[in-house]
Amino acid sequence: MGNGKQIRGAQYADIAIALVLLAIGLGFTIIAYGHGLGSMRRIGAGAMPFLIGCALCLCSLICLFGALRSRIEVDVSPPLPVALVLIAVVAWALMVEPFGLVPATVVLMLIGTFAYGPIRWVSTSIVIAAMCVGCVALFIYGFRLPFTIFGG
Amino acid sequence: MDLLNQILGGFATASTPHNILFCFIGVTVGTFVGVLPGLGPLAAIALCLPITFYLDPTTAMIMLAGIFYGAQYGSSTASILLNIPGTASAAVTCLDGYPLTQKGQAGVALMITTLTSFAGGTMAIVLVMGLAPVISAFAMNFSSAEYFSVMLLGLVAASTLSIGSPIKGMTMVVAGLALSMIGTDKYTGEFRFTGGVLDLAEGVSLVALSIGLFGVAEILSSFAGKGPVLLNASSVRLRDMLPTKQQLKQSILPTFRGMGIGSVIGAMPGAGPALASYLAYVAETQVSKNPEKFGTGAIEGIAAPEAANNASVQTAFIPTLTLGVPGDVVMAVLIGALMIHGITPGPDFISSHGDIFWGLAASFWIGNVLLLVLNIPLIGIWVRMLAIPPRILYPIMLVFVCIGVYSIRNSIFDVYMMLLFGVVGYVLALFRYPAPPLLLGFVLGPLMEQHLRRALLLGRGDPMTFLHHPISAIFLALCLVLILRSLPLGPIRQKLRSRQVHRVDME
Amino acid sequence: MKKIKTLAAAFGALSMAVLGTAAHAQNYPDRPVTMIVPWAPGGAADIIARLVAEPMGKLLGQPVVIENRPGAGGTVGSAVVAKADPDGYTILMGNVASEAIAPAFYADTIPYKVLEDFAPVTQLIQQPSVLLVSKDSKFDNVKDLMAFAKENPGELYATPGVGNSPYLTFELIKDNYGVEMENVPYDSGAEVNNALNAGDVQIAINNLPEAIKAIQAGIAKPLAVTAAERNPLLPDVPTFVESGGEKIVAISWQGIFAPAGTPDAIVQKLYEATAAALKDENVVQRNKELGSVPVGSTPEEFKAFVASEIENWAYMVKLAGASAPK
User: Fold this and answer.
1) How far is A152 from chain B (nearest CA, A)?
2) Mean pLDDT on B224-244
3) Which of A143, B317, C39, C248 would you call most buried, defined as having the most Cβ atoms within 10 angstroms of its Cβ?
4) Which residues of chain C make contact with B333, given a CB cutoff of 8 A?
5) Chain A contacts of B458, Cβ < 8 Å?
6) pLDDT at C288 over 60
7) pLDDT at B484
8) Peptide bond preceding A118 in cis form (omega within 30 of 0)
């Protein structure tokens, strides 16, 4: 199946997800209880979350049994491009306020394009330049979003 | 007769060249912000608000409302083509819209949504015009018990979405409810589940959640398997965008049902287009003779929710204008726009500002026609986007979603949240946990809690209050029906179905 | 760190005072002034901001541009102005929620101190809250209602949400009359009116503009207003002070702030422009429709007012027993 590969531990991962959901459900229920359940007439800040937490525990338990019994096949993406996409967005988030929209966009697009294989410099440069001009025109001058172009 | 005169007067107001021009500006701006994932109508309306200061109030409302429903039209585009919904209601359109794109039928899907959006919207307008006072009285009679019950129905419906395992769907509804509890408690002012993070005081951003779970997750999974849909640019011809007669026929009844559901939900302030879309979608899976085709590109699966959310957007103007209760932030801004002109919406709005009301209602109709004319040629352009290779298209989309998510509350924190939900959504999708039910749980959670608390308070602590209100009791009965239909029969049906599949394989 | 910043600010202010104030103030403003509204467009603060911005801009000779920076109960936008350059080109449309109640609610978590980080310019308007009962209620005055509530603890009353000025004012009412009543919070003033109309609740408190709508539509009767004086829109409705609630004076207000360290001459210029804008024909008319009483206090008066407001609301927040966890 393409360039993705089936992970061998898929069933374990499925079980792990159910366990994580169960842990979240338990934690949620306990914190909710701490907010107070209140009375039937004036239910407390914790009442609805408490019910939700209990339901989440129950649901994740059933999912856990399901995961224990059945096999699942998954088609995962290779880790490097996934990591690159995540890094690209983090870079944008780190840069946009101090350095401005244009540098942040350039860096995001460079890393993001690299995630899809070697960069073809000519076409990529054109696309990035067009995006920068377009975004500045549309979002800064058009929608007046509070971005700076080059920081400051 | 009086009514007819008022409607004619409304059309006379709405069809002056001046008003048609601003209506056109509104729906055009709306379509484009709707297409850009995450940006949404709010930014555009906020931008245009100062301009309306210098306009006549009717013209101002015509333009702002045009942005609002225009965006509803546009929001289905990114969902269908790229699986990136900007709103909770557009997430429903992803369910069958994106599979259609994967099958190479993106043009058909967009054409169907444009037509059903138009049909749903225009039929709802007839309701708005004919039944405004009735709808207003209907909305008035809804108290917290009814709201709670109809939202419960929405959640039950969402968890029985017949895609994948029902228990995983239910788990996602509950997870969405849990996420929605993060933030400040409206009754006590307590911070709940924020872990001391001030950015979470107002809760998780819906747009960050929705873009993350769908859009970012889609981009992350695009590296695996067969990869993203690629289109041969030369194949985009008008002929390929026209639905077949069969497909058109298939979408007629769902459009009517969706319009009906959407109109009712729209009249209830706060419930919003998301609930309308989900209920319409689930209603289709319930009445369909072969529900297993949903999620694989069923025409009904895009026709009904699109008709529903556009209908609900139109009828939503009634509670907004006659009760002064905005259904969402965008409606609140529209009320503000009226108040800038010294007009306060309220029970006497139709009688004291009839010219504005009827002019606006007529402009809805004109606006929907303009949208139809505007959107059909655009379909070809949108579909061509798929011809852009992923190494160019996806980085561009990443920039747009970052800007969109950031712009909602000028928050870098929300961009990180989007990324977190992207990873979560990617993992969940790998293991067949469906994301749309989570989104509905998230949207309805706070409303349900609030109405539950208020209903119990008003009912002096008696839980039977939910059965004493007749409409509420009907909704609860429907919940029970849905549960009974899905629970004991579900596994058996699945077994039968798999046996059938086997048989087909054997042959 | 904080000290260094204060020190730097002090130096900055000093050098500016010595070197540039006169020239700056004389030329001020030579470019558009940005007025930050820390609330969403279309809200009460936004409406008054847009109303006065136009005549203000005409008087200053430069346009006053509105920028909405909503979030976290008005504190996000307020923080932006608190940190802005004190040159008079970034000013704030502050109000009771973000500049008086929020400091009491979120004392240590909001990123500004109102009295230290702002130079108050002027109070634009004030509005009381109104105590309402449904149209067929047997009560016609505050005294009877409170006597009944005292004998029947647990009566329900509606508020337009938790933490806002009507909500906190009702805490003051309960405290003052020694009654126990239960709050049913709604999402907006319009919803409170609808609840009264539908008969879900019989008693409510609401902001004046919303209350006026309910009264005009005949779905509610006003019993008292929470200002020190009667409101011109409701001349027949007594104040609480007249009704045996001497301590019940609580109003909501909107006012303009500049960042601390803004030269006095510029603050004065802004004050004069705003005060004049309040007398603009259109503004007067709109304020009347909205039920707002124009104030136009001097910077000194406004500063003293804000200081007393922070104390008043802190007391009410304490009564409500609600405070954000640290």
Assistant:
1) 17
2) 62
3) B317
4) 40-42
5) none
6) yes
7) 83
8) no
- Per CB-CB distance under 8 Å, the chain A contacts of C182 are 42
| Domain C2-126+253-320 identical in fold to domain C128-243 | yes
Q: Number of Cβ pairs closer than 8 Å across A and B?
A: 182
Q: Is the pLDDT of residue B496 over 90?
A: no
Dihedral of alpha carbons B308, B309, B310, B313, sign: positive
Q: How many domains does chain A have?
A: 2
pLDDT of C2 higher than 50: no
* Secondary structure letter of residue A115 according to DSSP: T
Do residues A102 and A149 touch, judged by C-beta distance below 8 A? yes
- What's the mean per-residue pLDDT of chain A? 88
Whether B208 has a pLDDT exceeding 70, the answer reads yes
Question: Domain for residue A103, yes or no?
Answer: yes
What's the confidence (pLDDT) of residue B230? 57
Report pLDDT digits (tens) over B325-375: 777 777 878 887 887 777 777 777 887 888 888 888 899 889 999 999 998
- Paired residues of B415 in beta bridges: none
For residues C280 and B494, give the distance between their C-alpha atoms in angstroms, rounded to a whole number: 73
pLDDT for residue B492 is more than 60? no
Please give the residue that has the higher pLDDT: either C251 or A143. C251
The answer on A108 and A56 residing in a single domain is no
Helix, strand, or coil (residue B353):
coil
Percent of chain C with pLDDT over 70: 90
Measure Cα distances from C108 to A79, B96, B185, C113, C267 in Å.
Answer: 43, 49, 19, 9, 28
Annotate B129-140 with DSSP letters as a single string: HHHHHHHHHHHH
Q: Which residue, of A69, A88, A117, is where some domain finishes?
A: A69
Q: pLDDT confidence of B164, banded at 50, 70, 90?
A: low
The proportion of chain B whose per-residue pLDDT surpasses 90, expressed as a percent, equals 22
Domain boundaries, chain B: 2-137+147-458
Distance CA C60, CA C91 (A): 14
Structure tokens at B496: 């039968």
* A148 in any annotated domain: no
CB B182 within 8 A of CB C317: no
Chain C: touching chains (3 or more CB pairs < 8 Å)? A, B
Q: What's the ipTM?
A: 0.93
Enumerate the residues of chain C whose CB falls inside 8 A of the CB of residue A42: 182
Q: What are C220's two structure tokens? A: 């509610």
- Nearest chain C residue to B348, by CA: C217
C128-243 — its CATH code? 3.40.190.10
Q: Tell whether A84 and A137 lie within a shared domain.
A: yes
Task: With a cut of 60, say whether residue B205 has pLDDT above it.
Answer: yes
Q: What is the pLDDT of residue A8?
A: 62
Token pair for B185: 């408690």
Distance CA B429, CA B217 (A): 8
pLDDT of B407: 83
Q: Do residue A145 and residue B43 have CB atoms under 8 angstroms apart?
A: yes
Q: Map residue C46 onto helix, strand or coil.
A: helix
Which pLDDT value is given to residue B350? 80
Can you tell me the distance from the alpha carbon of B500 to that of C107, in angstroms, rounded to the nearest whole number? 66
Which residues in chain A have their CB less than 8 angstroms from residue B426's CB?
77, 82
- The whole-number pLDDT of residue B162 equals 55
CB atoms near residue C28 (< 10 Å): 22
- Based on DSSP, count helices (H) and strands (E) in chain B, helices before strands: 24, 2
Assess contact for C169 and C129: CB atoms under 8 A.
yes
Mutate: best of A40, A42, A147, partner C, most C CBs <10 A: A42
Put simply, the answer to whether C69 touches A42 (Cβ < 8 Å) is: no
Q: Is C47 close to B198, i.e. CB distance below 8 A?
A: no
Segments forming the whole domain that contains residue A43: 10-69
Q: List chain C domain ranges.
A: 2-126+253-320, 128-243
In the structure, what pLDDT confidence band is assigned to residue B161 with cuts at 50, 70 and 90?
Answer: low
Q: In whole angstroms, what is the distance from residue B118 CA to residue B121 CA?
A: 5
